[in-house]
Design goal:
By secondary structure, the chain is an alpha/beta fold. Helices cover 39% and strands 12% of the residues. The protein is built from seven helices and six strands; from the N terminus they run E-H-E-H-E-H-E-H-E-E-H-H-H. Strands 1, 2, 3, 4, 5 and 6 form a six-stranded parallel β-sheet that branches.
Length: 235
C-alpha cells in the first residue's frame, strides 16, 4: 500500500470499470445545445452552427439552437427574464453543447460571452454546465485564427465541461457559404464533420457517467466535514 498520510481514505474509493457503467434511463437521443455569437441577418457563425446541427441530426442527436436575439446583458435584468429562463433550461436539458463565435478584435464577441455569462456554475442544487461535453468553433473574416476557440476552451474548462480535442476554425467565412447559407464542400467542411462526429461519440461515452466522473475527492471531503459539524451541533 502506498502511504498517503494527508488523504482521507474513506473519501477516496478506488475507481473501477464497473463504476463507469452507464446509468439507466438514457435510451433517448443525445441532447445537444448549440450557441452562436452574432446577431447579423447573414451571420456566418449561425450558418456554421446550423450546418453542425444538421450533421449532429444525421448522427441521431436531438439538437436545439438558442437564438441570442433579445437576450439582455448579464446583470441588467433579473434571472426570471424569459430569454434567461430559456437559455438556462436548455443548458440543463443538454448533454453536450457546441459554441461557435466570430472573431472580433482578436476575441469572442459580446453576444457569445453574454450567453455564457448567463449560464451559472450552480443553479440551486443543479449545475447547468458541469459534465456536459463541448465542441468549439469559430469563423474568421480573414486569415485563419485560433484566438476564439482557445478562449472558448478556457471558458468551457471554467464551466466544468469536457471540451473535446478537435475544433473548427473557418477562415474567410464569406467564401465558404452559398447564398442560402449552406457550407460549400471543402476541407473546412470535412473538419466540421470530424468535430461533430467526435462530439457525438464523446457525448455517448459521457452521458450516464458524468455524475461519477465529476465526483471530486475535495468536495466529498468537505461535504463529510459539514455533515460531522451538523451532527455535533445537534447534540
Amino acid at each position: 500500500m502506498i502511504e498517503l498520510p494527508n488523504v482521507d481514505g474513506a473519501q477516496l474509493p478506488l475507481p473501477t470499470p464497473a463504476l463507469l457503467a452507464e446509468a439507466p434511463g438514457f435510451d433517448h437521443p443525445p441532447r445537444i445545445l448549440l450557441l452562436y455569437g452574432s446577431l447579423r441577418e447573414r451571420s456566418f457563425s449561425r450558418f456554421l452552427t446550423e450546418e453542425a446541427a444538421r450533421i449532429l441530426e444525421h448522427f441521431g442527436a436531438e439538437v436545439k439552437i438558442f437564438d441570442p436575439m433579445d437576450l439582455p446583458m448579464a446583470g441588467s435584468v433579473t434571472e426570471d427574464h424569459p430569454k434567461v429562463v430559456e437559455l438556462r433550461a436548455l443548458s440543463l436539458w443538454s448533454e453536450g453543447q457546441v459554441w461557435c463565435s466570430p472573431e472580433r478584435h482578436g476575441a469572442i464577441t459580446a453576444v457569445m460571452k453574454n450567453q455564457i455569462d448567463w449560464i451559472p456554475l450552480e443553479q440551486g442544487a443543479l449545475r447547468p454546465s458541469q459534465g456536459r461535453t463541448l465542441a468549439v468553433m469559430q469563423v474568421c473574416g480573414g486569415s485563419q485564427s485560433f484566438n476564439v476557440v482557445n478562449t472558448l476552451r478556457l471558458l468551457g474548462r471554467w464551466m466544468r465541461m469536457f471540451t473535446i480535442p478537435n475544433q473548427s476554425s473557418v477562415p474567410m467565412a464569406y467564401k465558404e457559404f452559398d447564398e442560402q447559407g449552406r457550407m460549400r464542400p471543402s476541407g473546412y467542411y470535412d473538419r466540421v464533420v470530424d468535430v461533430m462526429e467526435e462530439l457525438f461519440k464523446m457525448t455517448l461515452l459521457m452521458r450516464g457517467r458524468s455524475d461519477y466522473l465529476t465526483d471530486r475527492y475535495s468536495e466529498r471531503k468537505a461535504t463529510h466535514a459539514k455533515a460531522i459539524d451538523a451532527a455535533i451541533a445537534r447534540i
